[in-house]
């Protein structure tokens, strides 16, 4: 075989193969490459959108946290106010109860004092009658001299 003929034949086959590749193989390959490039671009765009949505979601979360903290603080302040009001009301009720108990104790003491005075008057009147019996050496009738004994009690 002739080297020139082989070289020409190989060149001719090469060009036919190049034309065939450019006409039938290259367009589907380029189409696949373009589709892949479009997918990658879409994926990158979706990632950017996801990052933007994540930033927005984090901003919303921080706003919600701030409003929740403010709400919790206001609730705590309300609870403190309510606790102070309950304590003040209990204090007032305790003061009223204390005043009532003191008034009742004073009234009881006055009544007891009055009873003690009456008993003391009766005892003194009885002692006076016994003393008068001793002095007169005779029995004094308490029923007969009730008016006199009443005046004596009143003076005591």
From TrEMBL:
Component of the F(0) channel, it forms part of the peripheral stalk, linking F(1) to F(0). The b'-subunit is a diverged and duplicated form of b found in plants and photosynthetic bacteria. F(1)F(0) ATP synthase produces ATP from ADP in the presence of a proton or sodium gradient. F-type ATPases consist of two structural domains, F(1) containing the extramembraneous catalytic core and F(0) containing the membrane proton channel, linked together by a central stalk and a peripheral stalk. During catalysis, ATP synthesis in the catalytic domain of F(1) is coupled via a rotary mechanism of the central stalk subunits to proton translocation. The chain crosses the membrane at residues 6-26. Keywords: ATP synthesis, Cell membrane, CF(0), Coiled coil, Hydrogen ion transport, Ion transport, Membrane, Transmembrane, Transmembrane helix, Transport. PANTHER family: ATP SYNTHASE SUBUNIT B, ATP SYNTHASE SUBUNIT B', CHLOROPLASTIC. The keyword Coiled coil applies. It comes from Pigmentiphaga aceris. GO terms for molecular function: proton-transporting ATP synthase activity, rotational mechanism; proton-transporting ATPase activity, rotational mechanism. InterPro entries: ATP_synth_B-like_membr_sf, ATP_synth_b/b'su_bac/chlpt, ATP_synth_F0_bsu_bac, ATP_synthase_B_chain. It is found in: Cell membrane; Endomembrane system. This is ATP synthase subunit b. Residues 77-130 form a coiled coil. The keyword Plastid does not apply. It holds the Pfam family ATP-synt_B. Belongs to the ATPase B chain family. It is a single-pass membrane protein. GO terms for cellular component: endomembrane system; plasma membrane; proton-transporting ATP synthase complex. F-type ATPases have 2 components, F(1) - the catalytic core - and F(0) - the membrane proton channel. F(1) has five subunits: alpha(3), beta(3), gamma(1), delta(1), epsilon(1). F(0) has four main subunits: a(1), b(2) and c(10-14). The alpha and beta chains form an alternating ring which encloses part of the gamma chain. F(1) is attached to F(0) by a central stalk formed by the gamma and epsilon chains, while a peripheral stalk is formed by the delta and b chains. F-type ATPases have 2 components, F(1) - the catalytic core - and F(0) - the membrane proton channel. F(1) has five subunits: alpha(3), beta(3), gamma(1), delta(1), epsilon(1). F(0) has three main subunits: a(1), b(2) and c(10-14). The alpha and beta chains form an alternating ring which encloses part of the gamma chain. F(1) is attached to F(0) by a central stalk formed by the gamma and epsilon chains, while a peripheral stalk is formed by the delta and b chains.
